[in-house]
């Protein structure tokens, strides 16, 4: 059993399934919806084109990788912008953070329609654009990160002090009257290594 619907499972189990990848990028003032090929498909009330008249086409979608350690899952999408103006617009700082959805879908070979409920394989946001240009080619590489990337953002302004506490809760003086704290609390930084060493004779039971 997979995460797909029974209809999708059946379509992909066929001898020659017609599959497609669809990408939706919700830019601040434009919904860019593309498929990885020619033509158009429609599902979820939206139409996805092989070539967007304003922003161009998809060149490639890198394999989606899970994150490990302090890295969030990510994928790289390469677009071929339709013009210099489109490339400059897509690479601008205002596009960063735009929501990106990537689907895997299949077509009914008899009707040519999309089999209901394509699988959403990635949901994230635009992170870092890299614009590459040569004499005969213009491409924009987008790094797409999952929403879990926000968990790794450092809130350097948050600190355990009366002034910061009051900036969040105006008039709350709880930290201003704290005295006699036996153990320091390190906020936003690692505690320094301890210089106290414990010998075998100090261990309970060894006298």
Low-confidence stretches: 196-207
The tally of domains stands at 1
The percent range for helix content is 10-25%
Enumerate how many helices there are, as a single number.
3
Overall pLDDT level: 77
Tally the beta strands. Answer: 9
Distance between the termini: 62 Å
Q: What value does the Rg take, in angstroms?
A: 26 Å
The gross shape turns out to be extended
Report the β-strand fraction as a percent range.
Answer: 25-35%
SSE order: HEEEEEEHEEEH
**Class by alpha and beta content:** mainly beta
Structure commentary:
This protein has three helices and nine strands, in the order H-E-E-E-E-E-E-H-E-E-E-H. With 207 residues, the chain is mostly beta strands. The protein has one domain. It has a seven-stranded antiparallel beta sheet. A two-stranded antiparallel sheet has the order 3-4.
Compile the SSE list and pairings.
Layout: H1 6-12, E1 18-27, E2 30-35, E3 40-43, E4 46-49, E5 57-61, E6 74-80, H2 84-90, E7 99-107, E8 119-133, E9 138-146, H3 162-168
Antiparallel strand pairs: 1-2, 1-7, 3-4, 5-6, 6-9, 7-8, 8-9
């Amino acid at each position: 059993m997979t995460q797909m619907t029974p209809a999708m499972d059946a379509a992909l189990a066929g001898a020659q399934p017609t599959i497609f990848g669809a990408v939706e990028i919700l830019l601040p003032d434009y919904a860019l919806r593309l498929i990885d090929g020619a033509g158009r498909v429609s599902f979820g009330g939206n139409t996805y084109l092989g070539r967007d008249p304003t922003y161009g086409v998809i060149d490639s979608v890198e394999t989606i990788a899970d994150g490990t350690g302090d890295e969030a899952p990510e994928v790289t999408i390469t677009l071929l912008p339709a013009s210099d103006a489109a490339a400059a617009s897509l690479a601008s700082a205002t596009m960063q953070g735009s929501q990106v959805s990537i689907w895997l879908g299949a077509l009914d070979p008899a009707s040519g329609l999309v089999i209901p409920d394509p699988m959403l394989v990635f949901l994230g946001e635009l992170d870092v654009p890299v614009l590459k240009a040569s004499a005969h080619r213009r491409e924009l590489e987008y790094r797409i990160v999952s929403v879990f990337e926000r968990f790794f953002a450092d809130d350097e302004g948050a600190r355990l002090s009366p002034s910061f506490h009051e900036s969040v809760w105006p008039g709350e003086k709880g930290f201003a009257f704290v005295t006699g704290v036996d153990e320091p609390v390190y906020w936003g930084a690692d505690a320094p290594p301890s210089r106290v060493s414990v010998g075998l004779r100090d261990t309970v039971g060894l006298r």
